[in-house]
Task: structure prediction
Amino acid sequence: MTMPEALAYRPRSVPLPTRVLARLLIGVALVLARQSPARIQALLRLLRRGARTATYAEAKAARDTVVAVSLTCAARQGCLPRSLATALVCRVHGCWPAWCVGVRRMPPFVAHAWVEAGGAPVDEDYPAGYHRTLFIVR
Result:
């Protein structure tokens, strides 16, 4: 059985310089997503140094940009590259959201990656506490 899914793909809604930067960082995120969790975590800890904590509005703007320019990141299964790209876009702007990886609390097992700002998941379909956090890069 297939389930239809509408994706918010609006690349022209983002200014060209921002779109180019976002696509570059999405490419980096796609390469990074193929690495081991330990390597991803180590690299993100290195990248976050010197950044201030992102506000919810900054993290949401970064996530909206990533979702607008990439079908891969807009898809439900694109949580890892979407969260990595969102964190990288925030970092380019001098801030850092909390990057989280976890699993669903109830069966069946489903892994998920997301960003948090202000103690809340940024623009996720799931409520806070729906996933059990395995590790976090603040």
Q: What stands out?
A: Residues 16-32 form the longest helix (17 residues). The mean pLDDT is 91. Strands lie at 52-53, 95-96, 98-104, 111-117, 120-121, 131-137. The helical segments are 16-32, 37-47, 56-69, 71-74, 79-92.
